[in-house]
């Protein structure tokens, strides 16, 4: 069968436009699996056409361009990915347009929001099926259904309409991830992503000037045994930690180096270090192979899995910087409300060790949880400040987002804290979607603004005390003036927006 995968354009309501477009790893993994089953596959990524429409809130290819691609390929099945709740509007817009211009195609939608709210997609007559959870095995079964080899009741991991009612078939998780081929990189133009990555540092406002590399993201595991109330991966990936073998990971890295000249890898795993022997084996093999690559953990990892021994080996294996997920500095709140199960002392220990062996460290913090008090918020902000002052840990402050399908969403819904059920409004830059007895969105915004003002001078001082880093940044600016100017404009816009909001 002919299968066309589409990543839809995005609805951008932020004051900062998207500056980076990562490769669609999930969809390319499914595409690779379908090619392995003998199907003819193409991929259309709307996000590599950022200026394709005059609509200021539309980021990506126009519906017309997408329709042209569909008519040109004439697919039997079209798979549309919908990663985030805020992008549901554009995903539906794509499916409805496609159904008009090419009615024969069966349109299937998948992704986290589709998994948790399939009824919202099936309400549209343009959508035939919704994938629940992982897509590789499920889409293969769907093709067999459309080929008449299976009944629809035999297809696990889907939602569909039957006699006016929604039917949901149970999902199954892939146990042997090594059986999945490397993502189908050949279906996209990786050079476009490499170029877009050069300006894709808008989210790292405090450390944006670095020597650009041919960088790519990689995911080596799925699932998480922890129960953090804000995390949305469980409906899609489950609680069981499943992973590629170290040998598979190393083969994947070697493939990217040899075929695409990759120099830097972003390990996007939710729990890269959870299985510490596995992680150490990956580091050993990187060192043994002599790979000249850098890498980081932008999704964050657990501080309690970063022993000094592993950190020393990670540095030998090319780590550029690490991100740890802290969330709250109040241990009781972290244990009983956030359900992070992380000892704060382990965060301090990891920070101390990273400073000792000179591995740059950053940390995620979240404020504005349901049931969180202003006192606890300030405790987290004070902790973040102290961590930066003592150990140079760069803070990344976020507002708690009640993602559909999470325990936090259910709590906020039950207590009446949700300000809106309009998912598109959840991406308005710099504002929370929650209002509780303790705080308003404006309160959280002010906390954020004052915090970043507080650490601004501290950051500049640390930069001045590190002449080598300062010199490196100057060199990068001279070598890549266009990219760095764009980043500086983004940072300036952020600060201006923050100041006006605080005033």
Q: Which SSEs are present, and which pair or pack?
A:
Blueprint: E1 2-7, E2 10-11, H1 25-36, E3 40-45, E4 58-59, H2 63-73, E5 77-81, H3 88-101, E6 106-110, H4 112-116, H5 118-122, E7 129-131, H6 136-146, E8 158-162, E9 165-168, H7 190-197, E10 215-218, E11 221-222, H8 234-237, E12 242-243, H9 246-260, E13 264-267, H10 276-289, E14 294-296, H11 308-316, E15 319-327, H12 331-338, H13 344-357, E16 361-367, H14 374-391, E17 394-399, H15 407-415, H16 441-464, H17 467-479, H18 481-502
Parallel strand pairs: 1-3, 1-5, 5-6, 6-7, 10-13, 13-14, 14-15, 15-16, 16-17
Antiparallel strand pairs: 2-4, 7-8, 8-9, 11-12
Helix pairs in contact: 1-6, 2-3, 9-10, 10-11, 11-13, 14-16, 16-18, 17-18
Describe the structure.
This protein folds into two domains: 167 residues, Response regulator (Rossmann fold), CATH 3.40.50.2300; 260 residues, Alpha-Beta Horseshoe (pyruvate-formate lyase- activating enzyme). With 503 residues, the protein is an alpha/beta fold. Helix 17 crosses helix 18. The chain starts with a strand and ends with a helix. 43% of the residues lie in helices and 15% in strands. The strands form four sheets. A seven-stranded mixed beta sheet has the order 3-1-5-6-7-8-9, with helices on both faces. It has a six-stranded parallel beta sheet with strand order 10-13-14-15-16-17.
């Amino acid at each position: 069968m002919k299968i066309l995968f589409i990543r839809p354009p995005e609805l951008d309501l932020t004051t900062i436009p998207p500056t980076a477009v990562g490769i669609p790893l999930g969809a390319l993994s499914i595409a690779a699996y379908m090619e392995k089953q003998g199907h003819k596959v193409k991929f259309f990524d709307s996000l590599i056409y950022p200026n394709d429409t005059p609509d200021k809130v539309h980021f990506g290819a126009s519906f017309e361009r997408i329709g042209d691609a569909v008519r040109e390929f004439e697919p039997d099945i079209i798979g549309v990915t919908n990663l985030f709740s805020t992008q549901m509007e554009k995903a539906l817009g794509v499916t409805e347009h496609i159904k008009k211009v090419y009615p024969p195609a069966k349109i299937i939608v998948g992704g986290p929001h589709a998994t948790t709210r399939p009824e919202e997609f099936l309400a549209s007559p343009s959508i035939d099926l919704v994938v629940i959870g992982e897509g590789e095995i499920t889409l293969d079964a769907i093709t067999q259904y459309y080929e008449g080899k299976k009944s629809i009741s035999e297809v696990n991991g889907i939602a569909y309409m039957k006699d006016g009612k929604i039917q949901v078939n149970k999902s199954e998780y892939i146990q042997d991830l090594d059986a999945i081929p490397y993502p189908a990189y050949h279906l996209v133009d990786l050079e476009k992503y490499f170029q877009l990555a050069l300006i894709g540092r808008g989210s790292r406002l405090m450390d944006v000037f670095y020597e650009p590399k041919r960088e790519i993201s990689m995911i080596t595991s799925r699932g998480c045994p922890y129960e953090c109330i804000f995390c949305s991966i469980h409906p899609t990936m489950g609680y069981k930690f499943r992973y590629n073998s170290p040998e598979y990971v190393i083969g994947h890295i070697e493939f990217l180096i040899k075929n695409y000249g990759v120099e830097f890898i972003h390990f996007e795993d939710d729990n890269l270090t959870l299985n510490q022997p596995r992680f150490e084996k990956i580091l050993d093999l990187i060192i043994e192979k002599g790979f000249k690559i850098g890498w980081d953990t932008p999704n964050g990892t657990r501080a309690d899995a970063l022993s000094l021994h592993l950190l020393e080996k990670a540095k030998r294996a090319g780590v550029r910087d690490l991100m740890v997920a802290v969330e709250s500095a109040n241990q009781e709140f972290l244990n009983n409300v956030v359900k992070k199960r992380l000892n704060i002392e382990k965060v301090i220990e990891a920070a101390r060790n990273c400073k000792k062996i000179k591995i740059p460290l950053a940390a995620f913090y979240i404020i504005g949880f349901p049931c969180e008090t202003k006192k606890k918020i300030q405790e987290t902000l004070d902790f973040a400040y102290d961590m930066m002052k003592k150990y140079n840990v760069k803070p990344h402050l976020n507002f708690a987002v009640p993602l559909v399908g999470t325990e936090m969403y259910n709590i906020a819904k039950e207590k009446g804290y949700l300000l809106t059920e309009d998912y598109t409004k959840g991406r308005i830059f710099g504002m929370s979607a929650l209002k509780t007895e303790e705080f308003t969105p404006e309160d959280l915004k002010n906390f954020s603004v004052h915090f970043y003002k507080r650490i601004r001078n501290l950051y500049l001082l640390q930069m001045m005390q590190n002449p080598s880093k300062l010199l490196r940044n100057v060199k990068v600016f001279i070598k890549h003036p266009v990219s760095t100017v764009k980043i500086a404009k983004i940072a300036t816009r952020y600060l201006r927006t923050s100041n006006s909001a605080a005033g």
